[in-house]
Amino acid sequence: MTFGATIKDEITKDYNNVLEDLISLNAYLKFGSEVSNDKIIIMLENASATRWIFKLLKNNYNAPVILTMRTIKRFKERNLYILEVKEKIDIILSDINNLTNNILEGSSEEKIAFLKGLFIACGSINDPKKNLYHLEFLIKDKQDAELVNKILLSLNLNSKVLKRDKEYMVYVKQAEHISDFIKCLGAINALFYFEDIRIYKDHKNMVNRLNNCEQANVEKSLKSSQIVLENIKYLEDNNLLILFDKRRREIIEYKKKYPDTSLAQLAEIITLETDKPITKSGINHHFRKINELVNKKKN
Question: 138-164 burial string, b = 16+ CB within 10 Å, else e?
Fold first, then answer.
């Protein structure tokens, strides 16, 4: 079972108040069924979603629902559940139209109920273990896609619309917004799973960034150290060390003695062995003055 299917399985085991459940049902019927003037046909592979729709149809419309189950053996064996409604179609169609026309003015709870039915009908979410975070809804009509996008934006879920072949995709990419969406649906188990994976990936990325920064700092330190040693050799080859005072020549000797040390390590060694305190910035100051003299002599 995919991660999206797991969420659908979880949220269709719960029921809300009568109005919110009716909104979820009508949203599903609009985007996930074949509706005509004489019948409604619904086809699902999720048993929990099938029971959820069957119960809501009976509770809200008291209409006879014909349930048929077929076994599909393409690629892997799975069940296909077919629900068929042939009565009170005009009432159901009226409710669907009223929902579409008024949902943007509805409360946050009503919008979330709408998104619940929509997600069960045509939504999917990537497993967070994959490289990309991705929530999407595939919708046939452009106007409907724009309506869904406005609802998501009104709930501070940063969504966008993209034309894709003969359909429109409304999608969300930010992990925190996808997490908020799962929370809105009330899929607590799926939310914990999503957040656990997200925290692990964020921690792993942070460790990688720190390692990269550390490696970059090491490379920078080695390059700086090599420049210092080259400057010292130039001074020696050109008999220029006499231009410096005793303290600076002493620091040069320690750098030659400990060529691979960092500025901080070299400062600590000199302080301990000479009993003359010096800091990392003090060492750097001396090396900068040496570099200035060498560049001046070379130019």
Answer: bbeeeebbebbbebbeeeebebebeee
